[in-house]
C-alpha cells in the first residue's frame, strides 16, 4: 500500500543521504522524495512516498526515527491530508496543435509559462493522479520533456508537524 | 583558554576520562599525535593495523561499561577501520572513532590519502560527523561520547580535517548535551509492564530469552533475580551469554543455530515468552514462519523500538532501558502475592528435563585425537570459569560458547552479528588492558588468528599476558562443515596448507609457544600457560579435523529441526 511519510530533520549536510541510504540499504521503495528548508532554516521538511505492507511501513517509520538527525516522523496517510505535486511539461505546439494544447491546459488549470513558435512549457499543480491524467490526455508524440517535483504533503485541519 | 584543534581533541579525551586510546599515526593526524606526545593522561596503544585498533577499543568497551576509543589517519587508515566499526555496530558496542581527514581546502579533489570517510562509514555507525570548524570540535566530541553510550549504544565516528587540528580557538568543554532530534527512552510504559507481569503470572510453559542487551544494559543482576523469583527456565543468545549464570539449573543453555536441544525445544513450545534485549535474528529463531506456527504470547523489552516486531510479531512491546524495566517488573512482582501456577510449571520443567536428558553436548574424548570441545571444557576448569574469553569466528567460537560456562556478564567477548574473523586477538588486547592481572583467553582457529596475527607485536610491546588457545584443525572448520553437509563433501578452498609453526612464530615475536598433540597433555599445557602470569602463551592444539559443531539448525529451517550428531546426517 502507498504511504506518504513526512519528516522534519536537521538541515545538515549528509542528512538527506542518511535517509536515502536507509531506504536503499534496507530495500525499501522510494516512489518520490522532496526536501527543502522550512521557515526555520535549521530544519528541513521532507515528504517521501513509499509503498509496502503495514509491517514494512512500521519498520520504515521506526528506522527513520532512529536516525540521529531526524526530529519527527509522521505517516500522513494514516489520516486526512493534502498532497500536491508540481509538473513542468514542454510540448511541441505548432499548427493546429497549438490551440488544442492551450485548451487542454485550461481545462486542467495549467498555465503556459514559456512560449516559442513551436513549443509551450506548461506548469501544472495537483495530485499525482491529476498530473498523470493530464499527461495521458496529451498526444504522447507532442511531449518533449516532463519534470515532476514529487509530492509535498500536509495534514488537514489542526494537526501540525512542528518541532 | 585558546588551544589548537589538536590540543582540544586531547583535552576532550581527558575530560571523558579516556585512559587508553588505540591507534595508528599518519599524515592527517600528525598534529593530534604531537599533542598526545606532550601529555601522559591518555595512554596510546600502537597497534599494527587499524582494524585491530578498533577491535581492541571494542574489546575494552565490551569488558567494561566504558566507551572504547580509537584514532586513525585518513584514507587507508579509515578504510582499514571500517571492519572494526561495522563489527561494533552489529553488536551495539559504544565506540568513538576519530579519523583524520585531508585539509578542508583539498576535500573533494582526490587528494593523497583522501576518502569520503563519513560516506563510507555512514551505514555502519550510529552516527558520524565531519568537523568543519575548529570551534565545533569540543561540542562534536561531547556529542559523540553521548550518542555512543546512550540509547542503543553504537560506534560514532568523528572525521577531522588536518587544517582544523592546527587552527586555534577558545576551549571550553561542554558539560551537557542537548539534541532536539535525539531523546532515547529510558523508562518503560507502566501499563505495558503491568500487562507483561499478568502474562508472566498466567504462564503455563514460560520461557525467558536473554539477549546481548542484558549484558550491555548492565541488567544481569535484575534479570537473574527476576528469573529466580519466577522459577522460569531461561536461555541466552550468543551475545547474551553471562546475562544469567550458565551453571544455574534454570539456564537451559544457549539457543539458536548451535543451541542446545532443550533450549530450542523450550523456546519453540513455550506459551509465554519474555524476550529481553534480544532481536529474534535469523541465527536465533531460524525461520520466522516456522517459529510463528506454534501459538505463544511474546513480551519484548528493548531499548530500540525498531527491534520490536521486526521479524516476529510481539504482543506486549516495552521500549526502555532493560535495567529500568526489569527493576519495575521486579517491584511489581514483589508487591503482589500472585505467583505462577506451580503445578503446570512443574509439568513444564519435567518436559524440559526430559529434553535435557538427550545430553546434546556430549562428546567422546578418545586416546589419540584431541577433541576441540575437550580443550574448551578444560579451559573452563583450569580458569575456574572466571576468565575473560574472547573469540574469533567459526567452529571454535561455537564450541567456546557451548562449553565455557559463563556465570558473569561481560566475560564473553565475540563478534556475534558481523562474524568478523580476526576479532579475537585484538579484542583480547583491549580486555587485558582494561583488566590487568585478570586471566584473558583468546579462543581462536588457525585461520582466524592469521587475519590479525601481526598484533602479537603489540602484545609484546605492551606486555599483555593473553593466553591464545588455538584449535588447529587445518581447515576453515565451519566452511568445511557446511561443505560436508550441504555441498557433497566438496571442500572447496577450505583446507589450509602451508601453515606456519605457530609455537615458533609466537617465539619469534618474543612470546612463549606450546604445541599440544595429545589429549593427555591438554590440561597440563593450559595449567602451564595460566601459571605464567606475565607471559603471552600461544597454545597450538592440534585437534580432530573432522569434528563438527552440533546441535545444528540448518539456515532457514525451524528451530526444532535439529541435527543432533553425525548420525543424523
Task: Walk me through this protein's architecture.
The complex is a heterodimer of chains A (163) and B (569). Chain A is of the alpha+beta class and 163 residues long. Chain A has helices spanning 15-25, 54-66, 97-107, 128-137; strands at 2-10, 32-37, 43-51, 70-75, 81-92, 111-115, 119-126, 143-148, 152-155. The two termini of chain A are 28 Å apart. Chain B folds into three domains: 2-170, Rossmann fold (3-Layer(aba) Sandwich); 190-356, TPP-binding domain (Rossmann fold), CATH 3.40.50.1220; 372-553, Thiamin diphosphate (ThDP)-binding fold, Pyr/PP domains (Rossmann fold, 3-Layer(aba) Sandwich), CATH 3.40.50.970. Chain B is built from 22 helices and 22 strands. In chain B, the strands form five sheets. In chain B, strands 3-2-4-5-7-6 form a six-stranded parallel beta sheet, with helices on both faces. In chain B, strands 11-10-9-12-13-14 form a six-stranded parallel beta sheet, sandwiched between helices. In chain B, helix 17 (395-403) links the parallel strand 15 (388-391) and strand 16. In chain B, helix 1 crosses helix 2 (30-37), helix 10 (220-230) runs parallel beside helix 14 and helix 16 crosses helix 22. Chain B is globular and about 70 Å long. The model of chain B has no long low-confidence stretch (mean pLDDT 97). The interface between A and B is medium-sized, with 20 and 17 residues.
Amino acid at each position: 500500500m502507498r504511504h506518504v511519510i513526512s519528516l522534519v530533520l536537521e538541515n545538515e549536510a549528509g542528512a538527506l543521504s542518511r535517509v536515502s541510504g536507509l531506504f536503499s540499504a534496507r530495500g525499501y521503495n522510494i516512489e518520490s522524495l522532496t526536501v527543502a528548508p522550512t521557515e526555520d532554516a535549521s530544519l528541513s521538511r521532507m515528504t517521501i512516498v513509499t509503498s509496502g505492507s503495514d509491517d514494512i511501513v512500521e519498520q520504515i517509520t521506526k528506522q527513520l526515527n532512529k536516525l540521529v538527525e531526524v526530529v519527527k516522523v509522521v505517516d500522513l496517510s494514516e489520516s486526512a491530508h493534502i498532497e500536491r505535486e508540481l509538473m513542468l511539461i514542454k510540448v511541441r505546439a505548432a499548427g493546429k496543435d497549438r490551440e488544442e494544447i492551450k485548451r487542454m491546459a485550461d481545462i486542467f488549470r495549467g498555465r503556459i509559462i514559456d512560449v516559442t513558435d513551436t513549443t509551450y512549457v506548461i506548469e501544472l499543480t495537483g495530485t499525482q493522479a491529476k498530473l498523470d491524467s493530464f499527461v495521458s490526455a496529451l498526444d504522447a508524440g507532442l511531449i518533449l520533456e516532463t519534470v515532476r517535483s514529487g509530492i509535498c504533503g500536509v495534514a488537514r485541519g489542526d494537526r501540525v508537524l512542528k518541532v | 583558554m585558546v588551544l589548537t584543534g589538536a590540543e582540544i581533541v586531547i583535552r576532550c579525551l581527558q575530560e571523558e576520562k579516556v585512559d587508553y586510546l588505540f591507534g595508528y599515526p599518519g599524515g592527517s593526524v600528525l598534529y593530534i599525535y604531537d599533542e598526545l606526545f606532550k601529555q601522559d593522561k591518555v595512554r596510546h596503544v600502537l597497534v599494527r593495523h587499524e582494524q585491530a585498533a578498533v577491535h581492541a577499543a571494542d574489546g575494552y568497551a565490551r569488558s567494561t561499561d566504558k566507551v572504547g576509543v580509537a584514532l586513525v589517519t585518513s584514507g587507508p587508515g579509515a578504510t582499514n577501520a571500517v571492519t572494526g566499526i561495522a563489527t561494533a555496530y552489529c553488536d551495539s558496542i559504544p565506540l568513538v572513532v576519530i579519523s583524520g581527514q585531508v585539509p578542508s581546502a583539498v576535500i573533494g579533489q582526490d587528494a593523497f590519502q583522501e576518502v569520503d570517510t563519513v560516506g563510507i562509514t555512514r551505514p555502519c555507525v550510529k552516527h558520524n560527523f565531519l568537523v568543519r570548524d575548529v570551534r565545533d570540535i569540543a561540542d562534536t566530541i561531547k556529542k559523540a561520547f553521548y550518542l555512543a553510550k546512550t540509547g542503543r549504544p553504537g560506534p560514532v565516528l568523528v572525521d577531522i580535517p588536518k587544517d582544523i587540528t592546527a587552527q586555534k580557538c577558545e576551549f571550553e568543554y561542554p558539560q551537557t548535551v542537548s539534541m532536539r532530534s535525539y531523546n532515547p527512552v529510558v523508562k518503560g510504559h507502566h501499563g505495558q509492564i503491568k500487562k507483561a507481569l499478568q502474562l508472566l503470572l498466567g504462564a503455563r510453559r514460560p520461557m525467558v530469552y536473554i539477549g546481548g542487551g542484558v549484558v550491555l544494559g548492565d541488567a544481569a543482576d535484575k534479570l537473574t533475580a527476576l528469573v529466580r523469583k519466577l522459577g522460569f527456565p531461561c536461555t541466552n543468545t550468543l551475545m547474551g551469554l553471562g546475562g544469567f549464570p550458565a551453571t544455574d539449573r534454570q539456564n537451559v543453555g544457549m539457543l539458536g543455530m548451535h543451541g542446545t536441544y532443550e533450549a530450542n525445544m523450550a523456546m519453540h513450545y513455550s506459551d509465554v515468552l519474555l524476550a529481553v534485549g534480544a532481536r529474534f535474528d535469523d541465527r536465533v529463531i531460524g525461520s520466522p514462519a516456522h517459529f510463528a506456527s506454534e501459538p505463544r504470547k511474546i513480551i519484548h523489552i528493548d531499548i530500540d523500538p525498531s527491534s520490536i516486531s521486526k521479524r516476529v510479531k510481539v504482543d506486549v512491546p516495552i521500549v526502555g532501558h532493560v535495567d529500568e524495566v526489569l527493576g519495575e517488573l521486579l517491584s511489581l512482582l514483589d508487591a503482589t502475592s500472585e505467583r505462577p501456577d506451580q503445578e503446570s510449571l512443574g509439568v513444564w520443567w519435567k518436559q524440559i528435563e526430559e529434553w535435557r536428558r538427550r545430553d546434546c553436548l556430549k562428546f567422546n574424548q578418545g586416546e589419540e585425537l584431541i577433541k576441540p570441545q575437550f580443550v574448551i571444557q578444560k579451559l573452563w576448569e583450569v580458569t575456574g570459569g572466571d576468565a575473560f574469553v574472547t573469540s574469533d569466528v567459526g567452529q571454535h567460537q561455537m564450541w567456546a560458547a557451548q562449553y565455557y560456562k559463563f556465570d558473569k556478564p561481560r566475560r564473553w567477548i565475540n563478534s556475534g552479528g558481523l562474524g568478523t574473523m580476526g576479532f579475537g586477538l585484538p579484542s583480547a588486547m583491549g580486555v587485558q588492558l582494561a583488566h590487568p592481572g585478570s586471566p584473558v583467553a583468546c579462543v581462536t582457529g588457525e585461520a582466524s588468528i592469521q587475519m590479525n596475527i601481526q598484533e602479537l607485536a603489540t602484545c609484546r610491546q605492551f606486555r599483555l599476558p593473553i593466553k591464545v588457545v588455538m584449535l588447529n584443525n587445518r581447515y576453515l572448520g565451519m566452511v568445511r562443515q557446511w561443505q560436508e553437509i550441504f555441498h557433497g563433501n566438496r571442500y572447496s578452498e577450505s583446507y589450509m596448507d602451508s601453515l606456519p609453526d605457530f609455537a615458533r612464530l609466537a617465539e619469534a615475536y618474543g612470546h612463549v609457544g606450546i604445541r599440544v598433540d595429545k589429549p593427555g597433555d591438554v590440561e597440563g599445557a593450559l595449567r602451564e600457560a595460566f601459571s605464567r602470569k606475565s607471559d603471552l602463551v600461544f597454545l597450538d592444539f592440534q585437534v580432530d579435523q573432522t569434528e563438527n559443531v552440533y546441535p545444528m539448525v540448518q539456515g532457514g529451517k525451524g528451530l526444532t529441526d535439529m541435527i543432533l550428531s553425525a548420525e543424523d546426517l
